[in-house]
């Protein structure tokens, strides 16, 4: 899964087609797992271990399966071959609505598992693109495209969006920069999120109707992604933390649905304890906030948030991205 630093929203149509988008994000060590076993009959069996749901039916009857499992059946509809069925098992370390790109990461994991099971190969870019097409075209789900590339590629990435084209610039950061970031970043859980599609739809409608500050905020998000990339490469991490706060101020101007009372409280508590900045990691409305706290006050920031009854997690980056393998 991923944490996003700046640029979120500029990957959501129609902004990238009109203006070109940019996102700075990093893959983290929280995962979605999927296994696929080819069957000798034409049955699709899906097991979501997190939801405790099981659905079964013929490959040709995917639309009749439990709609709560559509993220899992969607990849089968696109990738299943030769009429044989498949058994899928999926588990995620974060629920949908966490703001960590969980739903898209699940789709990437299932695509990877199916390709391995059918003995087919694809590049990270092709896997991300297939997952996007499954979500946006086949399933008709609203959202952006950054999450799929973070899951497929891993690492810290500066993503550029121009129409349907996505360029992945993997940042090769010094070990000291990565280690300091991992120490100084904190994830704070705000509680359950609103449906992200609702927030994204509101943002898109405001952008297209020129309502409020949405267009200017999207432009600023893109600028911040570019600025933060340069600052990361220069190793100026305290300045990076301050820009994380600017990213949050700008993000709230995309839609009034993004911020919550819990977000306001957590942000105030963290900054009062010494954090330089923080922002919600996904569409908003709940999920996780990401804070940057300098080394000398990191412990105090985490403790202050816990004293306010927030769950606080450490951050660890993943450099590899999606991996698939067979057990035969």
Tell me the domain tally.
2
> Percent range for helical residues?
40-55%
Query: What's the helix-strand series?
Result: EHEEEEHEHHHEEHEHHHHEEHE
What general outline do the C-alpha atoms trace? globular
Report the major sheet.
Answer: 4 strands, antiparallel
CATH top level label of the largest domain = Alpha Beta
| Mean pLDDT level | 92
**Widest beta sheet: strand line-up:** 1-2-7-8
Taking the alpha carbons of the first and last residues, their distance comes to 27 Å
Number of strands: 12
What share of residues are in beta strands? 15-25%
CATH topology of the largest domain: Alpha-Beta Plaits
Helical stretch tally: 11
Radius of gyration: 20 Å
Give the CATH architecture of the largest domain: 2-Layer Sandwich
**What's the CATH superfamily of the largest domain, by name?**
GHMP kinase, C-terminal domain
Descriptive report:
The chain is of the alpha+beta class. The protein has two domains: 32-154, Ribosomal Protein S5, domain 2; 169-314, GHMP kinase, C-terminal domain (Alpha-Beta Plaits, 2-Layer Sandwich). The protein is 41% helix and 22% strand. It is built from eleven helices and twelve strands. It has helices spanning 15-18, 70-79, 102-117, 124-138, 146-153, 175-184, 196-208, 214-234, 237-252, 261-272, 298-307, and strands at 2-6, 21-27, 32-38, 43-48, 53-58, 86-92, 156-162, 165-170, 185-191, 277-280, 287-292, 311-314. It has a four-stranded antiparallel beta sheet with strand order 1-2-7-8. Strand 10 (277-280) and strand 11 (287-292) form a beta hairpin. The longest helix is centred in the C-terminal third of the chain and has 21 residues, at 214-234. The chain starts with a strand and ends in a 14-residue tail after the last strand. The model has no long low-confidence stretch (mean pLDDT 92).
